[in-house]
Amino acid sequence: GNTPKDNYFSRKTMSKGYSQVDDANLIDTHISNRQHTQVQISWKNIRIATNPKKGSSKVILNSVSGSVMPGQFLSILGASGAGKTTLLNFLSGRLISKNLQKGGEILINGQSKDKLKKFQSFAAYVQQDDIMFQTLSVRECLEFSAKLKLNGPHEDKMRRVDEIIDELRLNKCQNTKIGGPLVKGVSGGERKRTSIGVELITDPYLVFLDEPTTGLDSFTATSVMETLKELAGKGKTIIQTIHQPNSDMFEIFDRLMLMAKGE
Q: Per the database record, which ranges form the ABC transporter domain (predicted)?
């Protein structure tokens, strides 16, 4: 079957909302053909513990449950070491260490995530550290991502880049270099929005972000949160971890999940 990137340019219609399909294969097919564009994710009794060769096991997550509906923006809040990133990595399929005991269930539109073969094709993960080429411009970074991740004619890939630039309000800085310690470049907020854009190029339904406000001042961090809220408003399911939100941000989040010591 085709992946979303194969069908991205040929889709004609998109039904709003998602259908509750009984069969995981049908969910794979529907999502691949972009017959529904929204994803509900829920998790029940997630338990993760270390599995040492010697000594006793340490529990990292203990019976954690939750859910996010399409169009919702969930923030997972907790101090360092609370288990936020471990939960995010487990939900997104990035926790692949063999030295961990894992338990619990993740459901996508009511079906077990383990049965879905194409989960990674409709989910995106934005890392805490923005890893981009310092000498490329914002537009060049997005074009590189489009060429890497999308199939179809060059013109359609560039059209998708234009859409992302508009959607994430990157118009003014699109020709500015990303920059770094030795290269003058874009602002922290522009850099973070570019990093988000690199992952949004495939138009994922489900977006995970690991502490996207790290290193940003309060005003810029709030601006990035507003951008994520807008994405959720278009039907995407947004899940992020956050360490120290300012007071303005609490009005932006749809849901807040508090974590402490793995619970």
A: 46-263
